[in-house]
Specification:
Number of strands: 12
Family: Belongs to the plastid outer envelope porin OEP21 (TC 1.B.29) family.
InterPro entries: OEP21
Mean pLDDT: 95
Helix content: under 10%
Shape: globular
Keywords: Chloroplast, Ion transport, Membrane, Plastid, Plastid outer membrane, Porin, Transmembrane, Transmembrane beta strand, Transport
Strand content: over 45%
Protein name: Outer envelope pore protein 21B, chloroplastic
Subcellular location: Plastid, Chloroplast outer membrane; Plastid, Etioplast membrane
Number of helices: 0
């Protein structure tokens, strides 16, 4: 199980996030996510999704259901496509999208992003770094992410930020 602690500037509380992947076959798994808000002491997000990977095309597709404490049940489809920029795959271009629809099929939310990632392995002994520069297409918001081993900091140009520590 992958577990992380997350804090964002607009949340005012620490969130414990857990994710588990259950293999169904070589390139397909059932993925579960859950978030527990430490301020209210209750789960605020639950998700179950079937994810299919297409390694020859550097792509993945997921279909599932999400439950938000305030927004209730949503159906979701998400996809990601990677384009290697360098021969050693240290620099890549990603396009990712997500489409959510509520349980009554009335309300819809879309998210599309394009981003470059640069993985720098062994900056120092046992230290890997990832730099990511992206653009949220629908919201028209650029963002930057810096990851170092277990720590990730994400900021955007409208003042939002979040920190994640993977346990």
């Amino acid at each position: 199980m992958e577990t992380s602690l997350r804090y964002a500037g607009d949340s005012k509380s620490l969130v414990i996030h857990a994710r588990e992947k259950f293999p169904l076959n070589t390139f397909t798994h059932l993925q579960g996510h859950a978030e527990l808000d430490t301020k209210i002491g209750a789960p605020t997000y639950l998700c179950a999704m079937i994810r299919q990977y297409f390694p020859d095309q550097y792509a993945s597709l997921g279909v599932g259901v999400q439950y938000y404490r305030r927004q209730k049940l949503w159906y979701t489809v998400r996809g990601k496509k990677e384009f290697p920029v360098t021969a050693n795959n240290s620099v890549n271009f990603h396009i990712k999208g997500k489409y959510d629809v509520d349980e009554k099929l009335l309300e819809r939310k879309s998210r599309v992003a394009a981003e470059f990632t640069w993985d720098i392995m062994d900056v120092k002994k046992d230290q890997d770094v990832r730099l990511k520069v992206g653009y949220e297409v629908i919201e028209k918001v650029p963002y930057f992410q810096f990851s170092e081993n277990n720590w990730t900091l994400t900021v955007n140009n409208i003042g939002k930020w979040k920190v994640k520590y993977s346990l």
